[in-house]
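Database export, one record per block. Field names are fixed; values are copied verbatim from the stored entry.
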Amino acid sequence: MKRNVSNLTLAVMTIAVTLLGGCSPAAEEVLLDVDDSGGSVSIAMGQTLVIELPSNPTTGYSWFIESIDEAVVRQEGEATYSPVGGEPNLVGGGGVETWRFTPVAAGACTLTLAYLRVFEDNSTQDTFTIQVTVP
């Protein structure tokens, strides 16, 4: 009888460890900001790449995708804007644009976002570039 209890305990522990192992995946979101520009990042299938960049749409400037390989990563939804201090229309008041990307397939690409006014030629004020690898 003692042997059966030990085998049962071992079986239950094995199942618990297996189930718990499946509950601890890598972080679902990989967060980057302006300081990460020029670097590289690896994101796994099932993760989301989140990029938060300073923005001030009251000046006419916003971030736009300049280059992306959609066979490797794709944008999820539209970029969102969150004003600092909660005043969305405060002239001169800035905030943060948040972009989300998910992996599509294994590969690597350069993701570049440009901070510009779409209604002006040569208005690019800044760029954010990151080398993205999907293993």
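Remark 1: The beta strands are 29-33, 40-42, 48-55, 62-67, 73-75, 80-83, 95-103, 107-116, 126-134.
Remark 2: The two ends are 49 Å apart (CA to CA).
End of record.
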